[in-house]
Amino acid sequence: MVTAAPRPTRRQALAAALRTLGGIIAERAFLPPARARAAAPGELASVAPPSLWPRTQQRTFQSELLSRVMPYSVYVPPGYEAAPSARYPVLYMLHGLGGDYTEWAHYGLLAEADRLMRRGEIAPFLIVLPEGDRAYWVDHADGGLAWGSYVAREVVAEIDGRFRTRADRAHRAIGGVSMGAHGALQLALNFPGTFGIVGAHTPVLRAYTEAPPYFGSPAYFAAHTPVGLVRRSPAAARTLVIWIDIGLQDGWFPQAASFHEELLALRVPHEWHVYPGGHTGLYWGAHIEDYLHFYGPALEGAEPPPAPRA
User: Fold this and answer.
1) How far apart are CA 282 and CA 277, in angstroms?
2) Which among 12, 119, 236, 286 would be 20 to 30 A from 225, CA to CA?
3) Into how many domains does the chain fold?
């Protein structure tokens, strides 16, 4: 008697399909936490639990590149004040097109980081949340505002000057969500001597015809978008520790998967994670712990390959 093989479940079928892309599906159930919600402007105190207020600062500084006063938030880890000679790695997290510098706090990043550090699951590091408006974290073409250099030069210098940081690329990570994921990849590739670790959480990778006008000419666009930068200099990409994740129902999934395939073809090492979910705050909030378990070990891990010389 011949018994028919059991029909695979939908999850098994998706996992088999994604393995052809080198993808990873989360095994645990996708249960968005209640804390996750859409970002909205406002004081950080409104989205950070009171226990974090003494170690979460809202500050401003004068940006010479943007000719304006810019706000940012910084979280200092447990034990920072008690160890005055200790220096710490830094994670810079960029917001999306519809958010502001409080967005990641809305999703629970600071509270979850504090919980994991207190439990000893990840080593302590600072977290910086800069403001980027709707400018795509990029130096605008034709002499426009230098939003990319503002982050990579001015914000980094502000933090290194005010806090006890381990001020080198091996201990400096940059990540972001949506527009911020594009920005994190672009900045890590254009400033590989500044950032050694990059996380792109549901990146929005637009074609030139879909890009804002401040991306200028096709040549300028190619020099300021992750796809063009990797094609131009895969060697620079290979010096980075890279994480990319996206939801299976995210409208930008095809572009992210294509970028993943290009990285594979160019032999650029990277982590590629696919989870159930869409381009929403519920998705990002649900994976904060996953992100922190990437950044924590990466910031304390082996020295990444040296950045290419300018």
Assistant:
1) 8
2) 286
3) 1
